[in-house]
Amino acid sequence: SQDLSGKIALVTGASRGIGRAIALALAARGATIGVHYATGADKAAETLAAIEAAGAAGFLVAADLSGAQPWESVTAQLRTELKARGAEKFDILVNNAGVSKRLAIEEVDEAEFDRVLTVNLKAPFFLIQSLAPLLNDGGRIVNISSMGTRAAYPFMATYAPSKAGLEALTKLLAVHYGPRGITVNAVMPGATATDMNAVSRDPNVRAATAKTIALGRVGEPEDIARVVAFLASPDGGWVTGQIIDASGGQRL
Ligand code: NDP
After folding, report:
1. SS3 of 104, please?
2. What domain range is 40 assigned to?
3. What is the CATH number of the domain that holds 145?
4. pLDDT in tens, 34-65
5. Whose CA is nearest to atom 32 of ligand 1?
6. Taking a C-beta distance cutoff of 8 angstroms, is the pair 70, 64 a contact?
7. Phi (first) and psi of residue 194, to 5 degrees
8. What's this model's pTM, rounded to 2 decimal places?
9. Is 3 within a domain?
10. How far is ligand 1, taken at its centre, from the CA of residue 76, in Å?
11. Which residues lie below 8 Å from residue 216, measured CB to CB, with a gap of 6+?
12. What does the pLDDT average to over 74-80?
């Protein structure tokens, strides 16, 4: 079953792109969705409206994950929203928010290194640490990595290492939280048509990239969301500690 009715999920970076598609996929399966965003308040409100239009419920959570201890604010906001719904705990955490900039090693200064590592690795680390006590036993953690950890792209000098760290964390937490029945997995998208990736803007880049993908096209946010929904649902319950490639076979 992929029925998520009665479940509560928090999806970071759900204002647009892959995070929005994940939020909508979990809502379509009946979950109540915490729609986290940083700067895109209007876009997050659109995500929430789409969730409600689909007959599900949700709420907004605002936090800049590059700021100081944002996990404390996220945890406090989530506690308040859970209480308002008569719940003490939630069920599904999706660490999707991320940043990327095409830079080779020579082009990276310390501030850029810190920015990418903070949003892509430090924030998920401390969000999980802070939210784990609020996660129901039998719950789910899904971290969004990138196939850039599997294939070498020199312009991903900070991005790929940040995601590789997230994958290592995924594996060890699967063992750590296994006794609580919590599964922890990562999904590696390939090139996906969102604001983050030039394939969404430049038809030439899209065509060239599609040639590197076995299935012959770039990914859409919904392609990733379906995989996350599987992992988050009862059907995915026997999968943990896995890094699942959802790239349509990019650079195989
Ligand atoms: P987008 O750039 O389209 O969206 C990024 C999301 O992350 C937004 O909701 C944004 O919130 C949020 N975010 C960015 N910076 C911060 C921050 N400092 N604090 C809090 N939230 C932040 O990205 P995608 O949807 O493409 O990417 C989603 C995930 O998928 C990322 O982890 C990315 O690395 C990964 N991925 C994407 C690929 C692609 O080709 N698109 C390929 C492989 C992996 P807001 O707008 O509200 O500020």
Report:
1. coil
2. 8-246
3. 3.40.50.720
4. 999 999 999 999 999 999 999 999 999 999 99
5. 98
6. yes
7. -140, 180
8. 0.99
9. no
10. 22
11. 210, 248
12. 98
